[in-house]
Amino acid sequence: MKQLAIAGMGTALPAHSIGIDESLVYAAKAFEASGEQERQLKLLYKMTGVQRRHTCVLNAPEGEPNRQPFFPDPNGTMRQGPTIRARMEKYENDSLPLALEASRKALEESNIEPLAITHLVTISCSGFAAPGVDIGLIKGLGLPFTCQRTHVGFMGCHGALNGLRVARGFIESDPNARVLLCAVELCSLHYHYGWNPEQIVANALFADGSAAIVATAANDTEGAWTIANTGSCLVPESEDAMTWRIGNNGFIMSLSSRVPELIGSHLRPWMEGWLQQNKLTLGDIRSWAVHPGGPRILGSVVKALNLAKDAVDISREVLRDHGNMSSPTILFILNRLREASAPRPCVALGFGPGLMAEATLFV
């Protein structure tokens, strides 16, 4: 049975970005914060570890006088921000260019022609449109019109790992398959107004981006990252710990303070059992790609698995530089690990609504 091998990777970010100081200005306006609330915001934003985020909701570089955000100051009919329809129209307009950029980079690194792609896997949880990004990629990249499409939708931050599982299935069933996988998210479209603690945390963390992989059957190419196994674990009695639902004014993320505790209680037993299936122990894993849902989640993983303090440095760097982009984030981390020739075996780990843990073992 052939294993999936990464032949090429690419990432893309919106042209415009926002630093922590400007983020705080927007947050204070959106929340109509009092003086004490502004002080709380500054502390929270500092604790996230996010210094800069790229976003589709700004249309001019920082410092230019015509810098106009998609989100106006709250007033009158706009007290809750743009409607879900307006946000989805923005998603439809802005998601494809990012997906095309990331995919072109992945194809270029792979040296595989677009017409050789047999399967397309797209991942997104931040918007809906049909025809959507998948059709746009086929036409924009010049993929075959017979390319077989699969969309992994609304699965949250671990969505790219679910997508890799799908791609792996295609390659194991057909060693001649050439799979393009692309994750794209515009999380900043779901910025929320009003003083709600859970929404404040989401506003402070999430950002926009895209990442893509071209995958083939493993061959003798030296250094190729290949998937040895994938795994899933539903944490018991945790359905309310992390949720992602559609509201009238954007998608609504809830993130309970219980999440780090749940990870601490349930991650290690499952991870040890899963690794044992591959005759590995935690001590055998030489690098980690942990989705940075937030600094407390990273800390809980490190503690639960008794990892070295620097084991998730790359995850922290991606969170610092780009924020939480949801599904593409784990691919940004994997790309940095590949570029740094990180040692393997490597485990990629993400968490999403459920509470669900998803893992991929790379060798």
Note down, in words, how this protein is organized:
It is a single chain. This protein has 363 residues and is α/β, with parallel strands linked by helices. It has a domain of 136 residues: Thiolase/Chalcone synthase (Peroxisomal Thiolase, Chain A, domain 1), CATH 3.40.47.10. The chain is 37% helix and 23% strand. The strands form four sheets. The protein has a five-stranded mixed β-sheet with strand order 1-7-6-4-5, sandwiched between helices. Strand 12 and strand 13 form a beta hairpin. Helix 3 runs parallel beside helix 4, helix 7 crosses helix 8 and helix 9 crosses helix 10.
3D shape = globular
Quick one: biggest sheet?
5 strands, mixed
Distance from first to last alpha carbon: 15 Å
Report the CATH superfamily of the domain at 227-362: Thiolase/Chalcone synthase
Radius of gyration: 20 Å
Return the average pLDDT rounded to an integer.
Answer: 92
Runs in which pLDDT lies below 50 for 5 or more consecutive residues are none
CATH topology of the domain at 227-362: Peroxisomal Thiolase, Chain A, domain 1
Secondary-structure-derived class: alpha/beta
How many strands?
13
Order of helices and strands: EEHHEHEHEHEHEEEEHEHHHEE
Helix content range: 25-40%
Strand order of the largest sheet: 1-7-6-4-5
Number of helices: 10
Could you say what the CATH architecture of the domain at 227-362 is?
Answer: 3-Layer(aba) Sandwich
